[in-house]
UniProtKB/TrEMBL annotation:
PROSITE patterns per the UniProt record, alphabetical: ADH_SHORT
Family note: Belongs to the short-chain dehydrogenases/reductases (SDR) family.
Keyword terms: Oxidoreductase
Domain of life: Bacteria
Name used for this protein in its record: SDR family oxidoreductase
Gene3D superfamilies the record matches: NAD(P)-binding Rossmann-like Domain
Keyword Oxidoreductase: yes
A GO molecular function held by the record: oxidoreductase activity
One Gene Ontology cellular component: membrane
Presence of keyword Oxidoreductase: yes
């Protein structure tokens, strides 16, 4: 039985980048409905208008638990949860002017994922288990100093994903960790690297959900970096360690 076709999905950070691509690709994959969640849903107007009622905008701020609770209470038919919302400050751990950016990254990238997952896990259980997709990063495995605090937040998401996977195994929820490299989004606009398209990344992830894969490296750069980490992790650490903050 398909985990996507005919199912209802909930996507955080759906207004742009990979989140917006997820909405489009879920529709293409036959999802019955997609709740497209964002702090500002105005950017979703075109998708809502052309979806024939299958895209439903949801106002959600993952840093505000009350909006998460309200979203979960109002959308009890969700079977696929995609934790996509995230930010990147492009700051180092020592060179940054204070730790406010790092705190914000942890609040959105880690605690946002944790709180949304906690709110929707019982709903997934009621609906047969379903699937959770957590957008981490290849930087979860090795710290990129130019993205020092972001890397740390995504490492936290990686660990969270493993813990949630273990806890929700009994309710038959597939928990997927995703570890992309650079993707052509606004977030990575100033990152000097060849980038995958959001559409190709979303397609690969949804195919992995259907196949029951738990760990996904959805683009050539992430595949190459992960292979390097398996073969010689210290060499990869030294290589990416040359990418220092400005």
């Amino acid at each position: 039985m398909s985990k996507i076709k005919g199912k209802v999905a909930f996507v955080t950070g759906a207004n742009r980048g990979i989140g917006r691509a997820f909405v489009k690709e879920l529709l293409a994959a036959g999802a019955a409905k997609v709740y497209a969640a964002a702090r500002n849903t105005a950017a979703l107007a075109d998708l809502v208008e052309t979806s024939g009622g299958r895209v439903v905008p949801v106002t959600l701020d993952v840093t505000r638990p009350e909006t998460i609770r309200a979203a979960a209470d109002a959308h009890g038919d969700v079977a696929v949860l995609i934790n996509n919302a995230g930010i990147a400050a492009f700051e180092g751990l020592i060179s940054a002017d204070g730790i406010e950016a790092a705190r914000n990254e942890m609040e959105i990238n880690y605690f946002g994922v944790l709180n949304v997952t906690r709110a929707f896990a019982p709903i997934l259980a009621q609906n047969g288990g379903g699937a959770i997709v957590n957008m981490s990063s290849i930087a979860a495995y090795v710290n990129f100093p130019v993205l020092g605090s972001y890397s740390a937040s995504k490492a936290a998401v990686h660990s969270l994903t493993q813990g949630v996977r273990a806890e929700l195994a009994a309710q038959d929820t597939l928990v997927v960790g995703v570890y992309p490299g650079p993707v052509d989004t606004d977030m990575a606009a100033n990152f000097p690297a060849e980038k995958a398209t959001p559409a190709s990344v979303a397609q690969r992830i949804l195919a992995a959900v259907e196949a029951g894969e738990e760990d996904v490296h959805p683009d050539p750069a992430s595949v190459e970096t992960y292979a390097g980490l398996i073969g010689d992790p210290k060499a990869v650490e030294k290589q990416v360690g040359e990418m220092l903050p400005a």
